[in-house]
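Recall the central idea of this unit: under ordinary conditions, the amino acid sequence of a chain determines the structure it adopts. In this exercise we apply that idea directly, starting from the sequence alone.
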Amino acid sequence: MKKIIAVLLAFTLLILPISCGKDSDDAGSASASGKESSAVTANTTKSAVSQAKSQSADSSAPPAKLENLDNTKQGWGQGKQVDRDNRPISCTQFQNKYGKYGALFIKENTKKIYLTFDEGYENGYTSKILDSLKEKKVPAVFFVTHDYAKRNHDLVQRMIDEGHAVGNHSYTHSSMPTLSLSKASGEITKMHEYVKDNFKYTMTLFRPPMGEFSERTLALAQSLGYKSVFWSFAYADWDPKKQIGADKAYKKIVGGLHSGAVYLLHAVSKDNAEVLGSFIDEAKKRGYELAKLS
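Accordingly, the structure predicted from this sequence is:
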């Protein structure tokens, strides 16, 4: 009997490690399964992240649907015909036609006007313009190219520091409709990144060089997060050798006053620099608010 009990006891002791071993193997399998599951999840996540990064990297590429839009080049000028409020009729027509693409030709018919300056190159007058704006506490938009921003870092920084908006005037000042869609996109995005990297400033306003545009380029700018800003007043002020004199310039600029006016003035103009303060005073005297364009 004792022998039988001893044999049974020995047999019991023999099978216990096997059972524990089996439980251990099951736990190991579960652990391995968990690791495999984690690995699959990790790989899936990495794949998703990689795909997202790839999509993000391609986000600067123009949407394919833009190819189907009309790319006929159009030039812009406000014309001479005005309504009873002195607002150029063509501006209202183009605003109604292209406003859906974020284009701005004229603002609402309220007693507000908006000053914008184009900066193709520096002619020594921007500091004086900034002084007048600071003295009168008036905001403006300065549209700059890459060459201008690179050569005049301090002036651009001053624009930002004094609360003005800096706008994108393209990288090389090329006519947008004459470029391929990818090159036109690069004109905006390269300039955008340059200002963002060097001034920690994000631009949202774009002025097409020479005022030349197409339905496609307006839609392109919009797809890149920009409003295309044109104007409802401008005059031949861009040639430093053909200035008309401060008195004539003042009368012309004041004569263009209208509600919702978007003024385009070139900062290379000696006349503009000389009359800016007086013009601001006269506009305020007539009840206009000089507002910030956004």
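Residues 2-58 form one domain.
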